[in-house]
Amino acid sequence: MAEVIEKWADGMALKVCSDSTFYFFCRDGYWKKCNMVKVGRPEEGRRKYLSVVWMKNGEERRGYAHRLLAEAFIPNPGNKRIVSFRDGNSLNISLDNLFWADASDLKRQKKVFQCTECGKKIVYSQKEKVQLCRTCMQRQYSRRRSEKTSQKKEQKLEEFKDLLLRANISLDTRYVRMHLAGYSVTEIAKCYGCSKQCVSAFLIHLRKKAEKLDQLRPLPGTATEEEQPDIREDDITITRIKDLGLAIRKKRQERGLTQARICKQLGISAEDYRNLETHPERYPDRSKVWDVLQILNVNLFVNGRYFGQEWFPEYSR
Ligand SMILES: [Zn+2]
User: Fold this and answer.
1) The whole model's pTM is what?
2) What is the DSSP pairing of strand 82-85 with strand 59-64?
3) 112 CA distance to ligand 1 centroid (A)?
């Protein structure tokens, strides 16, 4: 038979039994068994406790089961404040698992783990998930961070490389090869015997140049290598998009066409056409540039690469 102690909690009569069951005296005038619920912070690794539930004036009240049990059955001569669990399992509320303790008692109870990385002993009280010592944890953290940084750097270089390729700029240009290989500006400068500023200024300039040239780029999902037509003797072949204006001008003169005639055919003003012929790569409606090439009956090749109609969308960016 379980030992039963009647006590008051929260102004209510409670029966605390040594077999870890609880009863409260309900309004109907008889003892009713209390329900138990698990309570505790939801985070993983946090302790959960059993809570005894009773009703007072139609409201739900709770008290920690281990505490009620210890107060009822376990003597506490030292007036200690904490009820603790011998096996560390806070859901095991059998009487022989409970004992009164204070903070200094619990310190001695702390568990000793071994760091899975370096084997060093680590002492923690509750975090049973801990597997690494402080040093190894910090090392792991900084390693992860540097991995992330280098990934970002690689991605940036890859983007730069793509940009250069789109702009038809050779990857063998001066510092570019070293830069793409991941060398720092300082290392490149040392290698070439020039200043850091010289290298970084060059790379910045190159990026700007490439971005400008890249504005003449195809719409996505077009132009495959096989579609390249052969270069005819009459075609415009240039190495830099910048030279397109000059080439168009030359072709137009070869064909004996005036600016006035072409702008009429294109349906744009003479001034617009002048702008187009000076800087076709900057002309906002690139389809007009394409039309000019059609009027001149030429194909455009930049560095041997065919620039088909897909490179000349109506309005870009
Ligand atoms: Zn360690």
Assistant:
1) 0.37
2) unpaired
3) 13
